[in-house]
Amino acid sequence: MKNRILIVCLSLLSVVSVVFLYHFRVEADSRIEQPPSEAPFSHELFDAVLQEYVDGKGQVNYTKLKANPEKLEAYLDLLAVANPTELSYNGQLVFWVNAYNALVIKGVIDHYPTTSVRKVKWFNGFFSRLKFRVAGKTYTLNHIEHGIIRTEFVDPRVHFVLVCASKSCPPLEKRVFSVEDIEERLETATFNFIQDPTKVRLDRAKRRVYLSKIFKWYDDDFREGYDGVADFLADYLPPEDADFVLAEGVKFEHLDYDWTLNDQRF
What is the pLDDT of residues 140-167, one digit of tens each? Predict the structure, then answer.
């Protein structure tokens, strides 16, 4: 009897260990290192991926993309050996924003099917324990977002073009960002996000503003050039709404974040 109990306990321990190791191990992209390319860097391959597999609502056909990853993989090969330091300021911003969105997609299809990036790795591990080769170095998604994009470019509008593959994220656009359109599209993406009632909603009767948790998580970013979130929101709202969010006594509450995958199946 004791031996049976011991065997059962050891079996359970083995299963728990496997699950634990899967969710907590660091996964590094096995992309083969190559010498830097001398050809001008281009986002055309990723643009083709977005046009083919992303719909007008920003949802991705991960099933088809996983079955046909060649263009995405070829783009990631270019990212791995690119030298963004040779680009202009806006060129570098465009590089890292497109890279982030492409690598999120790569992380999803590597673990697809799944219903959420939160189910890929426990405790936000999708963003902190998947590693990718970019510009000759290895990065996690968190490093790219927090250590590069937010730190080096210091623009709160980037939060509305970085897409974490979830329903409550900004929608993924069907075209890559470019040096020529990055400023206009940052403005448009920010405006569209704030105008979306599922992301920002005013309740005059209750004197409440309900808004995305992005404004909570990155509160300090919205103080760069602004007097906080309310002041930032006011810049993208009609005058009457802007006056309301800036009024005394109005309270801000944050909406639940929907981490359901931005999959065309859902």
Answer: 999 999 999 999 999 999 999 999 999 9
For residue 261, give every residue at least 6 positions away whose Cβ sits within 8 Å of its Cβ, in sequence order, or none.
Answer: 62, 108, 114, 115, 116, 117, 165, 166, 167
Domain-terminating residue out of 181, 207, 231: 181
Amino acid at 234: A
Main-chain dihedrals φ then ψ at residue 109, nearest 5 degrees? -70, -25
pTM of the entire predicted model: 0.89
CA atoms of 175 and 56, how far apart (whole Å): 11
Asked whether residue 64 falls in the same domain as residue 151, the answer is: yes
**Using CA atoms, how far apart are residues 43 and 181, in angstroms rounded to an integer?**
14
Same-domain check for residues 148 and 202: no
Taking a C-beta distance cutoff of 8 angstroms, is the pair 172, 111 a contact? no
Residues 176 and 50 in one domain: yes
